[in-house]
């Protein structure tokens, strides 16, 4: 697969399509099984609150993956993602109901270089608050 977004079609300020992801407790169970991360803060309210969290929280790496998905969906090729960095700012609190939490990912081209690469600046929120800080991806354009 090759990137489908061409350098000629991208400018600084180009916005990626917004993506909204719903994360439920069932998703946390599935992610725990896939990742091997069975830390009880991701499924047990009592443990989560005992350690000072507001409740059960999503795995940070799951939140990070949802943000990366917005970039790879836009570029059209997961292999075109050449660098990715985030800082975890706030947890995504996942209530014990059928609705879960909403994670919203927005992205914008922040810089272009002469090698056909673009820096994507991401804004990732849940409950109206930023959950990832300094979230940036570098992609190779077609």
TrEMBL record:
Protein known as: Acyl dehydratase
Tree of life domain: Bacteria
Endpoints of the signal sequence: none
Annotated Pfam families: MaoC_dehydratas
MF (Gene Ontology): fatty acid synthase activity
Family: Belongs to the enoyl-CoA hydratase/isomerase family.
Entry-linked InterPro entries: Fatty_acid_synthase (IPR003965), HotDog_dom_sf (IPR029069), MaoC-like_dom (IPR002539)
CDD domains on file: SAV4209_like
Gene Ontology CC terms: fatty acid synthase complex
GO aspect biological process, one term: fatty acid biosynthetic process
Domain MaoC-like, residue spans: 18-108
């Amino acid at each position: 697969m090759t990137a489908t977004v061409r350098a000629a079609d991208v400018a600084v300020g180009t916005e990626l399509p917004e993506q909204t992801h719903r994360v439920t407790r069932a998703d946390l169970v599935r992610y725990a099984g896939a990742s091997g991360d069975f830390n009880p803060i991701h499924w047990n309210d009592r443990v989560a609150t005992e350690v000072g969290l507001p409740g059960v929280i999503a795995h940070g790496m799951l939140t990070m993956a949802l943000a990366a998905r917005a970039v790879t969906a836009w570029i059209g090729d997961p292999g075109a993602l050449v660098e990715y960095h985030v800082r975890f700012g706030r947890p995504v609190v996942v209530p014990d109901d059928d609705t879960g939490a909403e994670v919203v990912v927005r992205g914008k081209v922040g810089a272009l270089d002469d090698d056909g690469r673009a820096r994507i600046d991401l804004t990732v929120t849940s409950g109206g608050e930023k959950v990832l800080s300094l979230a940036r991806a570098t992609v190779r354009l077609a």
